[in-house]
Amino acid sequence: MELELESILLPGIEDKRPLVIAGPCSAETEEQVMSTAKQLAEKGLKIYRAGIWKPRTKPGGFEGVGVEGLAWLKEVKKETGMYVCTEVATAKHVYEALKAGIDMLWVGARTTANPFAVQEIADALKGVDIPVLVKNPVNPDLELWIGALERINNAGLKRLGVIHRGFSSYDKKIYRNLPQWHIPIELRRRIPNLPIICDPSHIGGKRELIAPLSQQAMDLGFNGLIIESHCDPDCAWSDAAQQITPDVLDYILNLLVIRKEIQSTENLSQLRKQIDECDNNLIQELSKRMRIAREIGTYKKEHDMTILQTGRYNEILEKRGSQGALCGMDAEFIKKVFEAIHEESVRQQMEIINK
Ligand code: PEP
Ligand code: MN
Predict the structure, then answer these.
(1) Looking at the domain 19-255, which fold is it?
(2) Which atom of ligand 1 is nearest to the CA of 199?
(3) Strand stretches in 69-204, DSSP E
(4) pTM attached to this predicted model
(5) What is the CATH number that goes with domain 266-353?
(6) What is the pLDDT at residue 263?
(7) Is the beta carbon of 187 within 6 A of some atom in ligand 1?
(8) pLDDT in tens, 219-262
């Protein structure tokens, strides 16, 4: 299905990368909301975020201040002129947020993973013209992410964007949520004019990762950043480890290098020609390798041998992994390539054996 899209840019917001949305993980008190908003507005930020309803893993945690906080966001609009946005997870949240004049909504990662909940939100939004940002589902499932966009688009909402906030995994060594950049990159390929906003706060889960992740997102040509910022991060009621002060946010944004997306230089097209030639050669060599693999298959069949010769397979992976490393590539990358090549060789040999 083709999405029918229109710009998410609100009046007065420049069409310039990065589009920045900033504000605390959660609205906690009127003072915290206002103080953070004023500091952000002073730094020139134009769109304010704050969670009013917080999805928590376990009961008993801080579940958000609820409707009361919407009045504070209204106050932010009035006092600073910033646009305000918040997360909605149910039809009731949608009604309350719209009633309070919220300018932009986002659908949280846990909600995107649930088609019933997304449909409920879509139904509640029917006939409303408001930008909606859909966070990726917690699990790395691009179809589920696109499905959520389709549901909201089918309800008539055209001002859609996505937020890449990383994917849940059991292994939390570096990231709180693995970036799995290939997923938003594939989304860009599938729906090129859909704005992608990166959420380095929830990907990294810690302050020191916000700058490098933001830079990576910009280098990939993503459109914006949504960053959690709090007037007193250490005392935040949720996600304290990943929130930064408006001052630090401003510092990080100023250091970002924004590269141009399209560089129509002659040099670039020359280099691309060379890449095409390399890719051609790779295909030729691969098909030669597969022909030989099939010959080996015939030999194995005639001599009643099993296809999988584990010793030989390990030898190839080890040898090519270290050779790749010597040539300046990641050994794990080369292993992956050879695993894929080996898989195809085995498939081709199976064909021969079963003939
Ligand atoms: C949030 O933005 O504060 C939030 C709850 O994010 P996510 O849905 O990505 O976990
Ligand atoms: Mn958060």
Answers:
(1) TIM Barrel (3.20.20)
(2) 9
(3) 83-87, 104-107, 132-135, 160-164, 196-198
(4) 0.81
(5) 1.20.59.10
(6) 62
(7) no
(8) 999 999 999 999 999 999 999 999 999 999 999 999 999 998 76
